[in-house]
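Our consortium's second objective concerns turning raw sequence data into structural hypotheses that experimental partners can test. To show how far this objective has progressed, the report includes one record in full. It was chosen at random from the queue rather than selected for favorable results. The single chain below, 198 residues long, was entered without modification.
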Amino acid sequence: MKTLTPVRLAATAALAAVILTLSGCGSDPAGTDTDTTSSGAGSPSQDSSGDVAPDDTAMPPWPAPVDDVPTRVAAAGLDLGPMGTAEHYHPMLTITIDGQPVPVAPNIGVDPNTGAMSAVHTHEGDGTIHIEAHTVGEKFTLGQLFTQWGIALTPTQIGGVKAADGEKVEVTSNGQPVTGDPADLQLAPDQQIELILP
């Protein structure tokens, strides 16, 4: 067995980065067509403690934030950095409001200035949530994605869309109803998550 020299180790790391980038988990936030001119998540609001508050007034579609991404990531209990490689999986999120699909923004949890990503992020606008953890078995929630997105998610509200009196956000995971706060839903491999506000 050959010992990896520093040169071989660097070459192996560079090759791994190229492979991950080409496989869709790279850090090319500028390469995706994102409308950041919309109101809402692109314009953060801060509370008196300096934390970024989720937007509970913006109507969909909601763009990924372009300002204060590190603050939003930290508010979700995550950090920005190189992708974790210990565990990698892709839950899917579908949002439907008033019978209409609402896109999940690309580049949630991705700093557009540096390309650094949190362990919970998106690349495409197709609802794929990328989990790239540094430790096997780390637990992540749907609320962490929405915190980074800057969009409110409660049992009765998504962003500025509120459920009618007596109604709630309908949540399913792999077709099974989920009760409680949708922000607490734990993310899992091959999971199909639906959020519906009739």
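The partners drew two points from this record. Residues 6-197 form one domain. The chain is about 20% helix and 20% strand. Both points have been shared with the crystallography group to help prioritize constructs.
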